[in-house]
Input
Amino acid sequence: MSKLLEVSDITAGYGDGPSILDGAGMEVEPGRVHCIIGPNGAGKSTLLKAICGMLKIRKGDVRLMGERLNGLRPDQILRKGIAFVPQERALFPKMTVRENLRMGGFTMRDKAELERRINAIEERFEILGERRDQHAGTMSGGQQQTLAMARTLINKPKIVMLDEPSLGLAPKIVQEMFGIMRMMADEGITILLVEQNAQMALRRSDWGVVLDLGRTLFQGPAGELLSDPRIQELYLGGKRAA
Amino acid sequence: MADALQILILGLALGGVFALMGSGLSLVFGVMRIVNLAHPALIIGGAYVAYWGFKLWGIDPLVMLPVAALILAITGIVLYKLVFEREARSAKYSEMTVLLTFATAMIVEGAIGTAFTNTQRVTSPDYATDAIFIGDIFIPTGQLYAGIVSLAIIGALALFLKYSRFGYAIRATTQNRDAAELLGVNVNLVGMVSFAIGIALAGAAGALVSFVFSFFPAKHWEWIAVLMSLVVLGGMGSILGTVVAAFFLSVIAAFVGAWIGSTWSTMTFFLALFIVLLVRPQGFFGEKPELS
Output
């Protein structure tokens, strides 16, 4: 299968600080759910930020269908088809749900098409339609996460990157979030997922990537990672080796 | 009763001018987190543009207003490119911008003082000293016109922010800069344009101020605390809050000036600043500060 996104041996960090990623890489194939796991501080969120252009890549390459993305701004990378929902959901609290959705299509020039897509999303996610005039900052955590994820669909992205979508949500709501993610994947959108609850995330993924100390240690089918006793022990709930 | 109504009208008329003076400061803080201590000095710059237009060519300051706004907007772009753009990613951005805007205020004051001396000036079109009488109540036409024009400009700004594509980008950047960038907003361009709009508002306010107050280059030091109190009371970065605070404090200051003494009138703004910081630091419409 051809590679949609290739991250090759990248080094990146915050500002002038030390490199958080040092030798991180992964191969992303279209239509799959890819889960990035690893301990706290492994560089999982940093990897997503580097891919979407929020952090400067110091070494290595990020390529989307062969095109090099290094040095592009987040808005340019979004236009290439990579959307990112960070941990804090990136909503505009004093804008209404409708305005937040409109911001999702900020790069679109065809206003009529944008309104059509927003209407379609409001029909699909009923809660967003019901609360279209409500300020996003006054909604519950689950509703905010639904809005953040649904908003990425406006741009019809090739890849959606989700950083800890379950953070701070009740278990029932977490299941709903994973349901939305699966639905996106079923529609052909490639998912890159970072999730603390690695067991649960891997069970819902096709491909797993293990990151530790800023570098990629393993990657392979999620099922294989789940059944690998070494991965189980080190990263999926067992005690870490000294 | 008639006295109270008279004071209320004078306070409201002045409130409109203060609202415009503070709006640019609020916009620049909201989008870029710059506490622009040079804002009142740039208002003085706008006042001089209107003054010389009137003095040399007899052009009405209201006609000079767009010229002052344009000249100051260009000044804003130059300032942004020279001074603030390179600091945008600095870890000490907030501290640096306070120092840089303070230095800018000194430079603007020095430049204007050198060019035009420290003489008190005032633009004097006929309406600046005229008044409309409604029974026993008089409304100074200068303040009335200035207030109406201020509200018209703020209204236009509000419509621009609410409905235009670039207005969406400015509001989004104000609320969540990273999110705006992720969704395709060129936040650097938004920063520069917002800064230019903020300084253009200073220029427009200057043209109005030129016939409402007498002014001289160092006058801006009197205004910075007044404008900061409006912005803090309104909620840092909230233009609506600044407008409400401007009317609220101007009316209170007018009553304090009439009933207690004019010296205490200005103190109203400073007192409000202290009380707000103690009781409700987020102001009328600002975000509650987080403990972490």
Summary: Chain B touches chain A through 18 residues (CB under 8 Å). The beta strands of chain B are 131-134, 137-140.
